[in-house]
Amino acid sequence: MVQQALNLSNCDRLRQAPSPQVAASLAAVFSRNTLDTLSLDGCRLDPIMLSSMAQCSGLRHLSLVGCASLHDAPLRAVLDACDRLQYLGLGGAALTWHEGRVLPGSTAVKHVRELALYRRTNLTDSVSGSIWCC
Q1: Predicted TM-score (pTM) of this structure
Q2: Among 4, 2, 37, 8, which residue's Cα sits nearest to residue 23?
């Protein structure tokens, strides 16, 4: 199977809530499970996209920096499904997920070689220690 990369970072059509057609198209791409790299920095992710992203179990590089509408449970589901991740980029000061509830114990984080957390005010020594102890 040929692995592919998809970079839609800061895509104008995804900066606001995506149309149902765009969300469905991306969900179809995710469900094929052929992506090796996925970058959606600065995009607004809807529930359909997030749930279908969990089907991308072959991802090795995932970047969701500054993604709006990203909450604890959907993010954790994606990370638990992506057990081959080597790079994970997350962050943004105004986001609604909390690293202390999402990252510790996640299947993906156990295998990540590079974790990039940007503009996270909740990151403490106890949280960062628990990420690597899981």
Answers
A1: 0.79
A2: 8
